[in-house]
Design a protein that fits this description.
By secondary structure, this protein is an alpha/beta fold. The protein is built from 7 helices and 12 strands. Helix 1 runs parallel beside helix 3. A hairpin with a 5-residue loop joins strand 4 and strand 5. The longest helix has 17 residues. It is globular. The strands form 2 sheets. It has a 6-stranded mixed sheet.
Length: 262
């Protein structure tokens, strides 16, 4: 199947962000892509998570999600995208940092609430975002392959990647807004490659652009080779992936059969 990594520069104008997402979806569809992957916080982003993230949150049947579903249906392409989901627990409560997977017909295939919140480097994501109440791994199927959902800081937790692989994931989609800092670009690449190698899976790691994030979105194959990496500017790349590559890597290194600690 064919997958598109869309490295965008979301801001605080939700309408502009939704138009941008639609433009990338149209481009991916023209290139014959089956699935487009967009970053964390694609519909609303700024340099610091604050109360505005809570204020902009909506339920998954709200106008933002409806627009995203209409975009997927319009271009006949599956979409994975990060948005802000309201908790439904009352005004002023924290939001969820949620990924939604939408099928090419516009129906929601899956949703994933971020498990591990980024309380690092002087940031306190948990002040305004709440973690998933139950840390449930989420997979969905599209184009004959199974995908596992991860969000940004989740990449640092190999146990989540392992559970997703054990649940059938052949591709890990890591939708991110990876905060810049010392050695952060190197860590991003190293962690993406490690998760691929450990589990014999593709890793599609997609990030927002500077200055909010680092860019360098990449597709890593199941043996840890970076098949394509974007730079720091808004851009997209469409590539082919195959379940055969996953099977071959796992036949060569059947770690999924050998691990003993659970």
């Amino acid at each position: 199947m064919r997958i598109t990594l869309a490295q965008i520069d979301s801001g605080t104008d939700v309408g502009r962000n939704l138009d941008l997402i639609a433009d990338y979806c149209a481009r991916a569809a023209r290139e014959g892509s089956d699935l487009i992957v967009l970053p964390e916080y694609s519909t609303y982003e700024k340099s610091r998570v604050d109360q505005s993230f809570v204020d902009m949150a909506e339920p998954l049947d709200g106008p933002v999600a409806a627009r995203l579903q209409a975009t997927a249906a319009r271009y006949g392409i599956a979409v994975v995208v990060g948005l802000l989901e309201s908790s439904g627990e009352g005004e002023g409560d924290r939001a969820f940092n949620t990924l939604v997977a939408i099928g090419p017909g516009g129906s929601r295939l899956a949703s994933y609430r971020k498990i591990h919140l980024f309380d690092c480097q002087g940031f306190r994501e948990s002040d305004y975002i709440q973690a998933a109440p139950e840390p449930v791994p989420v997979t969905f199927s599209c184009g004959g392959m199974t995908f596992g959902l991860m969000t940004c800081y989740d990449l640092r937790f190999p146990e989540l990647a392992r559970v997703l692989a054990d649940s059938g994931a052949e591709v890990l989609l890591v939708c991110s807004s990876w905060v810049p800092g010392t050695a952060k670009t190197e860590q991003w690449a190293s962690l993406a490659k490690a998760r691929a190698i450990e589990n014999g899976v593709y890793v599609a790691a997609v990030s927002q652009t500077p200055p909010v994030s680092i860019g360098y979105s990449m597709l890593v194959d199941p043996l840890g080779t970076v098949l394509h990496s974007l730079g720091t500017e808004p851009a997209a790349a469409t590539l082919d992936i195959s379940p055969g590559a996953v099977e071959a890597a796992r036949d060569q290194f059947p770690t999924w059969r050998h691990h003993r600690l659970v």
